[in-house]
Amino acid sequence: MPLEQQYIGITEKKAVRRMMLMNEILYEKAVERAGKYPIIVFVHSRRETIKTANAIKEMAYAKDELSKFLKEDSDSYKIL
Fold this sequence. Notes:
The protein is 45% helix and 8% strand. A hairpin with a 4-residue loop joins β1 (70-72) and β2. It has helices spanning 15-33, 46-62, and strands at 70-72, 77-79.
């Protein structure tokens, strides 16, 4: 599959709600592709990278979908 790029516009004005909405949309996009295609997510800073990764992990855990982001290995599971 060729490289694909998506931009998603968010019009929410409140910063906290905007971040939550961006993470929710990102999560849904990631779940659609998890295990099928590589995914690269660009954020504004190193700190935001950690926050975004944790948000995705927490959403997956809450929705009992963490296994969709794991790849079975011979001895253990690795996060993709």
